[in-house]
Specification:
Its EC number is 1.9.3.1. GO terms for molecular function: oxidoreductase activity. It is an enzyme of class 1 (oxidoreductase). Keywords: Membrane, Oxidoreductase, Transmembrane, Transmembrane helix. It is built from 2 helices and no strands. By secondary structure, the protein is mostly helical. It has a domain of 39 residues.
Length: 74
């Protein structure tokens, strides 16, 4: 079996495509399950594009202990 670079590239791209498809479906299943469990409501995130004013209410309000405050030290 003569394996030249062209065949190797073909096999590599085929397996990479299969791997990425599996990862995509895994991510879709993760999103579906987390929305079904009630962990996240992704429709709220979809409304960000429609309601993007500075004065709009945040989608999720993090508790004060989990917020990231970046303070500039002088």
């Amino acid at each position: 079996m003569d394996m030249d670079i062209r065949n190797l590239q073909g096999y590599a791209s085929f397996f990479m495509t299969i791997f990425l498809v599996i990862m995509l479906y895994g991510y879709i299943i993760h999103l579906y399950r987390s929305e079904k469990k009630g962990e996240r409501d992704y429709e709220k995130y979809g409304n960000i594009a429609l309601d993007d004013e500075v004065t709009s209410a945040p989608v999720e309000d993090k508790p004060a202990s989990k917020r990231d405050y970046k303070e500039d030290k002088k």
